[in-house]
Amino acid sequence: MELFRYATSVYGDKVIIGASFDLLQWFVGAGVAAVLAHAIFKWIVPSH
Amino acid sequence: MIVKDIMAPFELYQPAQLKDAFSLLDSFGKDAWKMAGGYDSLDWFKDRIVRPQAVIDLTGIAEMKGIKETPDGVEIGALTTLSEIENNPIIKAKYRLLADAVSHVASPQIRNHGTIGGNASQNARCLYFRYGLPCYRAGGNTCFADTPEGINREHALFGADRCVAVTSSDGAPALTALDAKFVLQSSSGQRVIGAEEFFVGPNVDILHLTAAKPEEILTTIRLPSAWAGKNFYFEKVADRNVWDFPLVNVAAAISVQNGAIRESRIVVGGVSAVPHRLTQVEGIIQGKALEEGTATLAGQSSTRDARPLNYNGFKIPLMASLVTRAVRNATA
Amino acid sequence: MSSHAGSVQAGQIQRHKLVDRLYHWVMAVCILTLLATSLLPIIGWKFAWLAIHWVTGLVLTVAVLFHIVRALFFQKPMSMVVDGQDLQNLGSGGRPGKYNLAQKLYHLAIAVLILSGIASGLVMLRKIDTPWWRRDPYWFSDSSWGVIYSAHDFVAMSLVTMIIIHVYFALRPDEWHLTRSMFRGWITPKEYKDHFDPKRWNAEEEA
Ligand SMILES: Cc1cc2nc3c(=O)[nH]c(=O)nc-3n(C[C@H](O)[C@H](O)[C@H](O)COP(=O)(O)OP(=O)(O)OC[C@H]3O[C@@H](n4cnc5c(N)ncnc54)[C@H](O)[C@@H]3O)c2cc1C
Ligand code: HEM
Known about the structure:
heterotrimer, B: 332 residues, alpha+beta, Uridine Diphospho-n-acetylenolpyruvylglucosamine Reductase, domain 2, Uridine Diphospho-n-acetylenolpyruvylglucosamine Reductase, domain 3, 5-stranded antiparallel beta sheet, 4-stranded antiparallel beta sheet, 13 helices, 12 strands, C: 207 residues, mainly alpha, Fumarate Reductase Cytochrome B subunit, two-stranded antiparallel sheet, 2 strands, 64% helix, disordered N terminus, binds flavin-adenine dinucleotide
């Protein structure tokens, strides 16, 4: 999976044109994972 | 180095049934390319700008071919060739507008093999886009045509949003004027949408000219009976009389009652990414006598919101006179 | 009755003035609109997004400028800065001031993201036609534009992660006093006593 979107410029060079939006699912996953990790932690170790 | 004129390898699939085509589309996803007559597709392959993994040649699917009358109008299979439409007696008798429009496409050879589905779905002909530059339509973040030095003689007067490419289809304005309905099918069902939804501008989708999703096939185009046998007019202006895309074309369907315009559809191609329907002009001329003054008024009011680029200002008077001629000369 | 700009009633410890709550919600609506307008079309829900997007972007820019001026000159900016006590509390479990360490770190991250989104977005405005100017793609080279677009895109995707986390904390019952205070502006004296260190957050003086 690529981090960026690339294209060939007018001059024939490979240029970055933006981030790869295929990564979006990973960003959503990271948010969900953080939430789950915290929820599980709080469930196992209840605060006083 | 950009290699031209040599296709990159791909796997060719030739399904004989729609359901097989759907399962191929489902399994290859974005790596699949639907091909009908191939007149648009092969350009992309030969220029190596599009390199699909799998090409799904639809032309073996018999259920997508032919023209038949229904109680509500007529159904045209998306694989029906432009020549068949041009010469079909039902179309000629009831929807002459479409027969006229497709008879102006390219050359007889292309019309003999090119399909109405492909004609309506064909991609933009902007030379920067076709050359493979990373423009907005190609997924990049620049428009090369709308720059101070950009050659934009063939580009949009209306509805530009970052991308200024236009629809180059002669069939699309006629289908829009006839209130055509587009039947899109996929393995998960079918949806039927009107022209205003089927053709999409860059403000909604800068990468595609139609609303067809990768997994969907345009199977049928339905023409409702409402416009059958009305007064029609089609005219196209191109740099060459044959084998050339329109600079501007106009398709009009006008319903006349007692010498007055009861209802009309006037649609202009080559001036926007979508067939540009002149809803305001239709409103202005509704109820007016079908006479020279009305035609002139239609032409004059048709270009009011035009935003010309550096080199396409000539399209404004051209469009105005085509609209005038359409209203003046539409005949049954 | 809710408290309005500074007026605190008995039994209510003011936490956020009306103007700050308004800022929070304006920003929230802007960010959600910016995310929805940009990302929904990318994941397949197509609509005419760009005009709503950049106009919302300008509203957000003005709102954030307002917030910066207000926070720096009319509020206590240090209350949002991580200090030694926050780190010591990590071990000892001591109570925080107005904002705890997690909130301060979250604020820092979101501030960096939003400011980067605004900075890249304002530059990208030059690439499109607006009522004030025709687009000009020549401001930067292709590759510099690519970097700017990438920054904007990564901000967008990171904000999705951040918002998921933010909403989760706002919905947690043990944080409800904070969430409620972003609606009505105040917390109860008991909540104040239970959750905060009055030496580090002198609510009375602030009110
Ligand atoms: C030299 C030349 C001159 C031309 N001049 C004109 C002209 O004057 N006027 C004009 O209108 N056109 C013109 N064209 C375009 C031509 O008419 C179209 O390319 C042709 O009609 C497309 O039909 P096709 O069946 O060959 O399409 P294809 O190339 O097979 O397909 C075109 C596009 O439509 C998609 N597609 C095709 N069928 C379906 C379907 N059933 N469902 C979903 N997607 C589909 C394909 O994936 C592809 O993206 C010209 C083309 C050439 C090469
Ligand atoms: C902080 C929240 C913001 C988010 C999440 C966000 C998200 C996005 C995304 C994902 C894109 C698509 C970019 C691409 O195609 O690579 C985009 C485009 C754009 N954004 Fe934002 N944006 C934000 C703020 C802003 C602001 C503040 C502005 C300006 C005022 C702005 C102006 C633009 C413009 C003009 C584009 C289109 C550029 C183009 O297509 O050439 N954005 N935004």
